[in-house]
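Extended Data, panel c. Modelled sequence:
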Amino acid sequence: MSTAFDPIELGGVRLANRLAMAPMTRSRAYGPGGTVTGLTATYYAQRAGAGLIVTEGIQPSAVGQGYPDTPGLHSPAQVAAWRQVTEAVHAAGGRIYAQLMHAGRIGHPSLLPDGLVPVGPSAVAAKGSVYTQDGPQEFGPPRELDGPGVEATIEDFAGAARNAIDAGFDGVEIHGGNGYLVHQFLAPNANLRTDEWGGSPAARARFGVAVAERVAAVIGADRTGFRVSPGNPYNDVAETDPADLDATYAALVAGLARLDLAYLHLVESADRELTHRLRKDWPGVLVLNPFTHPAHTGPEALALVEEGLADVLAFGALFLANPDLPERLAAGGPFNTPDRRSYYGGDHRGYTDYPRLGETG
């Protein structure tokens, strides 16, 4: 029987333990051109005791940005800035993956340069709003990606993955959940396409598999992870038909399994049976961000590794409040209490009621 404190091989790399720091939005890329600063390096290095750190969402292209002051990995300056982060984490003995997150229809033109507008699988606006320099703005209809646009977006992910390795990251995690672009392709209410990228569950899953396949071809499957959040309604995603949900994620997981990726990262819904089904279908390492709403994930979740439901356990808010969380978990506490505002970096203005399934960013 394994415990959360045992080492594990991930993509040929030995992790010191099975505790992961979940990706959480920071909105603190205050450097020029959407670059992270020395504060980011300190923040992640403080948490290098995690077996694996997964960063906040990093946009793979300029049009992929969805929130103010989020970082990118699509320019030389951004690559150089991230290098100080990876060096700090490695110096502290940690391992760190870059989460590549294209926001898709979530965002606003005022957040984007050069007259760009948000893009999506279909020209369907999400309900809700985003904070901008002019205050909250409602999401508008995105520009529907045409065939060449889909292919170019896949290449943006691949280019950002290459940049991540150049910046010193141990690997990348493709964000396929929480209502962002990959999830939008999966969701029947956001993807109304009738071409090869939409319609049936298998066709809607094709974009996520194509992104993972291209990224794996560039940096290696052993350095590529993929995150999903089946049934998560965040950002106006509706996956309410159980049969369609099962068929969509069965197709996605089957396609990803053929690639022999480093891991699948599951943001769990309230449906524990779905977790068991995905666990059975996924042949590799499963990172689990367990369903704990309305509380944050606590030490009681450690049993999920011992039970075999998870290979690696992801903690969110508790890692923010306790940078030395693995040591505290091993000792049984004590634990600092997370401040709910910290889920958005403490200064993510206007976001105070994040409808979490698990803990995530």
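Confidence is low (pLDDT under 50) at residues 344-361. This feature is highlighted in the accompanying rendering.
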